[in-house]
Amino acid sequence: MKKILFIFFMGFFLIFSTLQAKEFKIGVAVALTGKFGKAGNLVKDAYTYWQEAVNKKGGIKVNGKNYPVKLIFYDDKSDPATGAKMIDRLINRDRVDLLLGGFGSSQVFAESAVAEKYGFPLISGAASSNKLFQRGFKYYFSTLGKATEEVKGCVYAFANLKNKPKTAAIVGADILFTSLACEGFKKYCKKNGIKIVHYELFPMRLQDYNSLFMKVKEKNPDVLFVGSHLLVAMRTIKALKEINYTPKGIAFSYGPTVPKFVGDLKGDAEYVVAASEWTPNLPYKGKVLGSAKEFAANYYKKYGRMPDYVEAASAGGAIAQQLAIEALGLTPPLKDRDREKIAKWLHSHTVNTFYGKIKFDSDGANIAHPALAIQIQNGKIKTIYPDNVKDANLIYPMKPWKDR
Amino acid sequence: MKIFIQTLINGILIGGVYAAYSAGFSLIFGVMDVINLAHGELLMLGAFTAYWLFKISHIDPYLSIPIAGVLLFLLGYFIQRFLINRVIEKPAIMSYILTFGLHLIIANTAVKLWTHDFRSITTSYSGANFSILGITIPVTRFTTFILAFIIVGFLFYLLEKTDLGRAIRATAQNKKVAQLLGVDVKKIYALTFAIGAAITGIAGASISPFVILFPEMGLSYTIIAFCVVVLGGMGYIPGALIGGIILGVIQALTVTYINAGISVAITFILLFIMLIFKPTGITGKGNV
After folding, report:
1. Is residue B54 less than 8 Å (CB to CB) from chain A?
2. Is B138 helix (H, G, I), strand (E, B) or coil?
3. C-alpha span between A157 and A252 (Å, rounded)
């Protein structure tokens, strides 16, 4: 009797476990709390949106059969070491089939190292420090360009003007992504003959920006470039207004595209320029989430806000991985050699998505994607660079605080 | 020369801001020997009171100051009466653990309630400034600077000239004797904590127009308050003003003449030097 019961339970267990395996388990370690908690939640929203859209159609379609997607999120607490631990847990304890990237270069740097060790492809849509691509990794991919290249559009938007600026100041927070953004600003300023009159990095902990920007004000550059995250960008605007300093132009590496920037700073956000990789008015489309415009409209319906480019890039990465699975005809649970095939496929194919073309270079960077620049005009985000996709002209010089 | 004076003014103004939110920290330490690690959270709650009143009812952040004061007074009274009172007789480590726990609970509850969003109050006078002889002075910072003097003056008056103040001082000096003389020590502790929380809430509401608010902002303010109070003398109320202004000026000079990168480090170097060589603070009047 005992034996029969045992066989019965084993049989039940086996059936149950094969039933369980009929879905793709995808793990994500991303900042849900801590200093990148706000931005990390955007990434979570983007993946969740993709998951729901895919599951609505039954799941990822492989050889005529649908396999739903199940996402597992862990909070890396904005801390690289925690992130690495979470990836280990996803792979070894939760036995996920695949991974997707989190938010922020420092975190993704640590997380992708663990993924590489186990041979798990990791596509990130929210990390772009150059260092990520200099490790000779085979399994790391990014739908964003490199941090130094992302800001190219910002500089060119100014440099292409007839009355182009002659001098610039570059300041930024001293963390991986923002300091590289500063490098990028420097590189393209030099290329365009814009003289750099001030260059300074400051710690994220710095609370009072007034004295810092007072120094910049004294040197009176035409344009101010800031290597920033959202918090830095917001504090910068507050400080500039308080010390009554309006450069002719100001550009940020990240921050102003997050809806809260315009929402809370209101008129003070006007004329601010920022780097971007995607806006909803671009003529991109793909088979999974439709066109850029459709994606933005549906996203708005779900979350009540427009998607940021980091969200688009993250969803774009999820789609690229999905297309690889479909093309290769892989079914869950995935094995090590399946993941190796996916990485190879991603390296050798170009995919079309609402986010634009995605083509990964041998170092994992997306090279099919042009850097954009946006400017806030009348509270709306307008694309001002490059010329073939822009929907507004750069307003330069910006109006002084006193005249607004 | 102009840049030197401007830097000095910046430093003095930010020093006043530091003083405004450090006075409550100093008061609580001076009377109860409690280093309140949830201090920054009280400030954050004051600032968020102003934010939500502004966002929902369009109440000017300066009009929210008394409301933030009253709310934080009640919260402070509650926290001390029901939580901190339980550990006040215990070794100091217990109060660190308790207040650190409070810091985590308040900050994380705020994250759950209000998300991680960075927020800003933008009013018609946001970023307004005036200039005297070419020196720019931001109005909102200047207001908080004045408020710091009012807070410190009020506390000084309260402690020196009123019966409640005498009872508070007596309790701070010798709890047993105060008790023998008919002072309700538990009530005095609760009132002191409530007053400390109230002025911190007031400071929070008053800085809300010019800082970026987020639920986890508190800890960095607690650290600054700690440095300010060590510099000025632990528990010596006017020391908050002196410590605040010294710290503010040193930081501003560092940013202008060396670089922003080490201005944060300077704060901690200063803290260590003071703790090692002059733990009673620059004024020499701090409790150790």
Report:
1. no
2. strand
3. 13
Instruction: For B260, name the nearest residue in chain A, comparing CA atoms only.
Output: A202
Contact A242 B141 (CB under 8 A): yes
Q: What is the CATH number of the domain that holds A115?
A: 3.40.50.2300
DSSP state of B211: S
A254: left (phi over 0), alpha (psi -120 to 50) or beta: beta
Cis peptide before A397 (omega within 30 of 0): yes
What domains appear along chain B, each with residue ranges and CATH number?
2-277 (1.10.3470)
Let me know how long chain B is: 288
Q: Please check whether residues A82 and A188 belong to one and the same domain.
A: no
Show residues of chain A in contact with B255, CB under 8 Å. 208, 211-212, 215
- What CA–CA distance (Å, rounded) separates A221 from A201? 17
Q: Per the structure block, which two tokens stand in for A272? A: 């601010």
Residues belonging to chain A with any Cβ–Cβ distance to chain B shorter than 8 Å: 33-35, 37-38, 41, 174, 200-203, 205-208, 210-212, 214-215, 218, 230-231, 234-235, 238, 240-244, 260, 264-268, 401
Q: Is residue A366 part of a domain?
A: no
Nearest-Cα residue of chain A relative to residue B108: A33
| Contact assessment for residue A149 and residue A382, using Cβ atoms and an 8 Å cutoff | no
Q: In terms of Cα–Cα distance, which of A204, A141, A206, A171 is closest to A350?
A: A141
Please tell me if residue B269 touches chain A, with a CB cutoff of 8 Å: no
**Could you read off the pLDDT of A3-45 as tens digits, one per residue?**
666 666 655 555 555 455 589 999 999 999 888 888 899 999 9
User: Angle between the B218-232 and B237-257 helix axes, to the nearest 10 degrees?
Assistant: 110
- Surface-to-core class of residue A18, CB atoms within 10 Å of its CB (0-12 exposed, 13-18 middle, 19+ buried): exposed
List the single residue in A212, A235, A401 with the smallest CB-CB distance to B212. A235
Which tokens sit at A318?
């999820």
Tokens of A17: 């476990």
CB B214 within 8 A of CB A78: no
Euclidean distance between CA atoms B103 and B110, whole angstroms = 11
Angle at A179 between CA A354 and CA A160, to 5 degrees: 60
Domain count, chain A: 2
- The ipTM assigned to this model is 0.90
**Other beta carbons within 10 Å of A194:** 23
Could you tell me if A14 and A136 lie in one domain? Answer: yes
Half-sphere exposure of A204 (CA within 13 A, CB side): 12
Q: Is A167 helix (H, G, I), strand (E, B) or coil?
A: strand
Tokens of B2: 């102009």
Mean pLDDT of chain A: 91
B33 contact A CB<8A: no
Contact B120 A38 (CB under 8 A): no
pTM above 0.90, yes or no: no
Contacts of B127 in chain A (CB under 8 A): 238, 240-242, 244, 268, 401
Task: Please tell me if residue B210 touches chain A, with a CB cutoff of 8 Å.
Answer: yes
User: Which DSSP letter does residue B266 get?
Assistant: H
Inter-residue contact A277 to A371 (CB < 8 Å)? yes
From residue A207, give the alpha-carbon distance in Å to each of A204, B250, B260. Answer: 8, 14, 10
CB-CB under 8 Å, B122 with A264: yes
**Alpha-carbon distance A159 to nearest alpha carbon in chain B (angstroms):** 29
What is the distance between the alpha carbons of residues B110 and A287, in angstroms, rounded to a whole number?
41
Question: pLDDT per residue over B16-38, tens digit each?
Answer: 999 999 999 999 998 888 999 99
- Give residue A198's domain range: 149-276+371-403
